[in-house]
Amino acid sequence: MHLSVRLPQVQPDQIPTPTRCPWHPARKKQCAGKHFKLHQIICRKSVRDTRYTEVLCHRYRCLKCKCSFRVYPQGVSHDQLSDRLKALSVLLYILGLSYQGVADLLDSLEQAVSKGTVFNNVQAAGTRTQQLRRAWLTQQVGKVKVLGLDFTHVKCLGQDKIVAVATAILTGQPLTFDLIEAEASVRVEQWVRNLAHTLGAEILVTDDADALKAVADHLGLKQQICRAHVNRNVHDLIAALGTKALEHPDSVPWELVGMRLDQFREDLQDLEWIIQSMPHDGQVQLDQLAARYQLAPPPSQGHKATMWYRMRLMTLDWSENWSRLALYQSWRSEQNEKLDGTNNVTEQVIGQCVKERYRTMRGYKRPQSILNVSSLIGWARAKGPDYDLSELVSG
Questions:
Q1: How many CB atoms neighbour CB 41 within 10 A?
Q2: Which stretches of the chain are DSSP H helices?
Q3: Is 87 inside a domain boundary?
Q4: pLDDT in tens, 229-249
Q5: N-term to C-term CA, the chain
Q6: pLDDT by residue (tens digit) across 49-81?
Q7: Do 184 and 302 belong to one domain?
């Protein structure tokens, strides 16, 4: 995994002046005090860091509630670990080490950090990225016209979990990582409706699952079906039908008057060429093929569908969904941006942010960890070169 980030720096001589009275768990309500008196200049704070073992902090007294509190230098908080060491543990985990592996590596560098502490650092950073992502999404209202959707599966305590991933196709930005109970259209529709309404999406880019077609239609959104998915599926199906026609073909049903076996093989080749080449008159050609096989009889109860009926279903399916497959040829954004006809952007995000890290694991132990880790990796990758990890770990 390639990342370009910067670790937080510890600046012992940069101690900020407080602007508000901090919240303390022992208080019943937060003080609104804004005026403070320097109460203690030299206050020592032990810290675990790659460079420092101790820093000086200041103690202030709030003139309103009379409570005193510490103000720490940049890169240090009330935690024992500095922000730099926290960020380093998070970065090592993102790069593929296990929680124990990170602890062992830091221990070899004379920075003793327990496996549990590494876990807490990663989870806290993941939770922070989800908060940042939600805030960022509110700024994207009306800016994401093309929404890419896909799903992947991971194990959590031995159970299969579905991770739903949404991306901005035109920019390649991951938008959200969510867990849904099932890929049923009702569950997906609720998820997509919220996203599309928030972002102002007009087009969905998905695979060719029927449930997603129903969602797009019900929400009144245009849909681009991923050509890569379709080409693979059609190629496999045509290969199976071609083998069937060559080795042990089904007899020609009487309903298909004048149909010949060599015509069937030729139509298979034409169908594959249409789907792969996307000619300008593809709709007309598919309509003609669908009409040729529309009388192929369905199988009787307890029998398998014949190759003639399967050809009928396939030609009819793509005749009806040609506009979903060819949308990329005619659609242009206001900035004259184009679609490439695939959902590769979303698949790459899944591979980089979910699957790549998951391959080295035996599974997750809690659902929230799935979202925390995926969101953390996605956020760090999307921020670009020299991203400062301070906002993810500062206490």
A1: 10
A2: 83-94, 99-108, 115-138, 185-199, 210-219, 227-247, 261-277, 282-292, 307-320, 322-325, 327-330, 344-350, 356-358, 367-382, 390-393
A3: no
A4: 999 999 999 999 999 999 999
A5: 27
A6: 999 999 999 999 988 888 888 999 999 998 999
A7: no
Q: Closest by alpha carbon to 199, among 181, 179, 173?
A: 173
| Within-domain flag for 249 | yes
Fill in the amino acid letter for 265.
R
Q: Tell me the CATH number at 181.
A: 3.30.420.10
310, HSE (Cβ side, Cα atoms, 13 Å): 17
Number of domains in the chain: 3
Return the closest-CA partner of residue 275 out of 319, 242, 334, 213: 319
Lookup result for tokens 């096989």: 293
Whether 234 and 308 share a structural domain: yes
Task: Extract the tokens encoding 94.
Answer: 């993102």
pTM of the model as a whole: 0.86
Q: Give the residue from 193, 208, 311, 313 showing the smallest Cα distance to 261.
A: 311
pLDDT digits (tens, 9 = 90+) for 128-160: 999 999 999 988 888 899 999 999 999 999 899
Number of residues that this document lists for the chain: 395
Is residue 337 located within the same domain as residue 198? yes
DSSP state of 354: I
Would 179 be classed as within a structural domain?
yes
Domain stops at, among 71, 94, 112:
71
